Amino acid sequence: MSIIIKQDAFVTDELMQLVAHERAVALSAREWKHRLAGYGYSIRDTDDGKHVLETLPHHVALCELPEEMFH
């Protein structure tokens, strides 16, 4: 597991591919979050209804996830 300090477009794209793949494989949102935790990531829901991908256990925000992943 690696912790991403800088926001890099290439790394963010790879993360989005990983998150999208795990969403496609998972049968439910709960399983999806569990699978992401295995990679060292979590999804935090913000007060304004957005979803942020962050690292575990330090909760460093990496990127915002698109809303269509949650439907």
What is the gist of this entry?
This protein is α+β, with helices and mostly antiparallel strands and 71 residues long.
Lateral strand order in the biggest sheet: 1-2-3
Distance between the termini: 28 Å
* Overall helicity: 25-40%
Structural class: alpha+beta
What would the principal axes of the Cα set say about the shape? globular
Q: Counting H and I runs of at least 4 residues, what is the number of helices?
A: 2
Rg estimate, integer Å: 11 Å
List unreliable stretches of 5+ residues: none
Secondary structure: number of strands: 3
Instruction: Kindly report the average pLDDT value.
Output: 87
The helix/strand order is HHEEE
Estimate the strand proportion.
15-25%
Give the biggest sheet.
3 strands, antiparallel
